[in-house]
Amino acid sequence: MADEPIIKVQDVHKWYGNFHALKGINMEVKRREVIVIFGPSGSGKSTFIRTLNRLEEHQRGTIIVDGIELSHDVRNIEQIRSETGMVFQQFNLFPHLTVMQNIVLAPIQVRKWKKEKAEEIAMQLLERVGIPEQAHKYPGQLSGGQQQRVAIARSLAMQPKIMLFDEPTSALDPEMIKEVLDVMIELAKSGMTILAVTHEMGFARAVADRMVFFDKGEIVEQGTPEQIFNNPQSDRTKLFLSQILRH
Amino acid sequence: MSNLNTVLPPVSERSNILRWMRRNLFGSWYDALLTILGALIAYWAVRGFLTWVFTVAEWEVVSTNMRLLMIGQYPLEHSDRLWVWLGFLVFLSGNSIGIWARRSRFAVVLLLIPALLALFPFGDSPRQWLILLCIAGLVGWGFGRARPDVLKRSVIAGWVISLPVIILLTHGLSESESGFMPIVRTNLWGGLLLTFLLTVVGILFSFPIGVLLALGRRSELPIIRWFSVGYIEIVRGVPLITILFMAQLMLPLFLPTGWTVDRVVRAMVGITLFSAAYLAENVRGGLQAIPRGQFEAAHALGLNGFQTMTFVILPQALRLIIPILVGQFIAVFKDTSLVAIVGLLDLVGIAKTVLAQPEFLGLQREVYAFISLIFWVLSYGMSYLSQQLEERLGVGKR
User: Fold this and answer.
1) Taking the complete model, does pTM exceed 0.80, yes or no?
2) Across the interface, which of B298, B303, B316 has its CB nearest the CB of A95?
3) Which residues of chain B have a CB within 8 Å of the CB of A86?
4) What does the pLDDT look like over B283-315, one tens digit per residue?
5) Which of residues 301 through 340 in chain B touch A, CB cutoff 8 A?
6) If we measure between CA atoms, which residue out of B330, B373, B332 comes closest to residue B351?
7) What distance in Å separates the CA atoms of residue A105 and residue B154, rounded to the nearest whole number?
8) pLDDT tens per residue, range B218-276
9) Hey, is the C-beta of A74 within 8 angstroms of any chain B C-beta?
10) Residue A56 in contact with residue A47, Cβ under 8 Å?
11) Of A18, A34, A110, which Cα lies nearest the Cα of B301?
12) Strands across the sheet with A68-69, in order?
């Protein structure tokens, strides 16, 4: 069982109208694996990880997450979502709730935990992401980096088996990127299964087990960071890497 | 020379009234001219009104008919029940002010209004009740301040049961005249009492219906969506007065023989259904202002559709539209006066009957000025409350 992949994606296609956004994606993700997905904008990488918890619906192929196949069955979708954390580019914290209320909402409503237990765990998570003193502030009173760390803590509160990151540092000022990456690196080292869409090549080099290059709705190339950085096979990968690593 | 460090604002910024006037009203010769001209026009306009209010107007028509204007033909021997629920409301208000508006002095002054009203010549019994109201409010305020955390829940519970309490006390329990709290038929309800009940019921029931219709209009299920769209567009396309006429005249035709629905209830249903259609569109506007990311984040956490709406989307959407909602509530309050046309004796209806008495012929100005004042005071009260609420909820800040 332990060797069974936690995510199995077979021949997944998606269209937006006539635009073919995903063209037959196949991927298997092992438990505790850390995968970095990168590629030019519009390549389908965000769309792909959003199909994994059904924020986007795929139209062909199968996606199996932790033994459950994604279908139109709402209960399956909700179960997969409660096992899968997601962190967004725009944080998407709930602005009318305090940091603490943001974190305990889902554990109390979905997992049916007692309020005290949820708050205790929330406090531990806030310490883990380094901002316990902000628990009773509102998201609007925090910096971008702090908000993104709260968003990570909010996802972790559901004790997910998989974490999906959708460009988590793209909306941040440069000096705040590090504080978010540090949290993500710590999370990767703790054994979490992670799929991250990001162009932070430092993060990839430090913790990624595998890097996947997306272009025009297809997986062009994948391999260890070593292979990708030092010996990329495809011309498209080479071109893209040279563009983002030039500076 | 030690306080050289305390920087005072430049002299021109330190204002007093004279300096302010010189700068803003008499800054140049044409400013001065405009100021004098404006003052003359204002004087001319207000003088006529004030002379009328203090010398010409015959306010006896209002004071003699005060009871009619307030409660219509509601029997005097049962009117204590109305004072009791009014006292209950004032007590809850005092509680709420003590708990949630601890620092507001103005709110405390509000609680003294009944005592101020007691200075007017209303007769002994109302005067005693007004003083009791004032005491109830202040006692409630004291409790609220002393024990805010303990009382919060019971105050909210109190507000929740207040409408049933009001209806029960107003309507009564016992069929026989000698029993406990004999029933007062709704045809005797009138004046401000009826206006108040129509408004409160209209607002409280149309609100949830409006929210459901707004959600229905965004539903993915076609039948629910078509029903919501159809309902909203049909009701919004029809004047309230025709709905009230339909409720009064046509509803009985559709009911099985022997069934009757109380006329006041019919009016309440009409107002509620009418207001719900407008509320639905207001709420939909609020829902559209919530970014898609909020839905996605809630879904990604595993919240189902109902939980997403209840805990994430609606609280934000409703907070955004507080000013519009209150505008709608004020409109409902004023629109209830249309029931006078279908023969109910609300504030406007009772004013017409007062003016039909031979001894008060020709005193329309006094009576209508008075009920306008009541409408204005209560509408402004709602508006003021909503501003306080917005400030408290930090609308526009977070």
Assistant:
1) yes
2) B316
3) 297, 300
4) 999 999 999 999 999 999 999 999 999 999 999
5) 301-304, 307, 311-312, 315-316, 319
6) B373
7) 24
8) 999 999 999 999 999 999 999 999 999 988 887 777 777 777 788 899 999 999 999 99
9) yes
10) yes
11) A110
12) A19-29, A7-16, A60-65, A68-69
Region B367-396: mean pLDDT is 87
- Residue of A90, A102, A159 for testing the chain B interface, max B β-carbons within 10 Å: A90
Residue A95 in contact with partner chain B when CB distance is under 8 A: yes
Which residue in chain A has the smallest CA separation from B318? A96
Which tens digit of pLDDT belongs to each residue from A147-160? 999 999 999 999 99
Q: Which residues contact A7 (CB under 8 A, 6 or more apart)?
A: A27, A28, A29, A52, A63, A64, A65, A66, A162, A193, A195
Contacts of B300 in chain A (CB under 8 A): 53, 55, 81, 84-86, 88, 155
Torsional sign, CA B323, B327, B333, B339: negative
Both tokens of residue B304? 């189902």
Q: Which helix (H) or strand (E) holds B151?
A: helix B148-171
Chain B hits for A82, CB-CB cut-off 8 Å, are 301-302
Residues B130-153: pLDDT tens digits? 999 999 999 999 998 888 888 889
In chain A, the N- to C-terminal Cα span, in Å, equals: 44
Q: Give the helix, strand, coil percentages of chain A, each rounded to 5.
A: 40, 25, 35
Whether B303 and A109 lie within 8 Å, measured CB to CB: yes
What is the rounded CA–CA span in Å between residue B114 and residue B272?
30
Contact (Cβ atoms closer than 8 angstroms) between residue B265 and residue B186: yes
Q: Residue A101: CB partners within 8 Å, gap ≥ 6?
A: A94
Kindly state whether A90 is in contact with chain B, defined as any CB-CB distance less than 8 angstroms. yes
- Residue type present at position B113: I
Tokens of A41: 């904008």
Take residue B85 and report the two structure tokens written for it: 């629920």
- Mutation target to probe the A interface, by most A beta carbons within 10 A, among B220, B295, B301, B321 is B301
Which amino acid is residue B200, in one-letter code? V
Which residue is closest to B306 within chain A, CA to CA?
A: A109
Q: Are A203 and A180 in contact (CB under 8 A)?
A: no
Complex confidence, ipTM: 0.94
Q: Give the tokens for residue B263.
A: 């006329």
Dump the DSSP string for A130-185: T-GGGTTS-GGGS-HHHHHHHHHHHHHTT--SEEEEESTTTTS-HHHHHHHHHHHH
Query: Measured between CB atoms, does A105 come within 8 Å of chain B?
Result: yes
Question: Which among B302, B316, B394 has the least Cβ separation from residue A106?
Answer: B302
Contact call for residues A130 and A142 (beta carbons, < 8 A): no
Query: What pLDDT score was predicted for residue B139?
Result: 93
The number of residues in chain A equals: 247
Q: Which pLDDT band, with edges at 50, 70 and 90, does B29 fall under? A: confident
pLDDT at position B398 over 60: no
Structural tokens at position B189: 């309800």
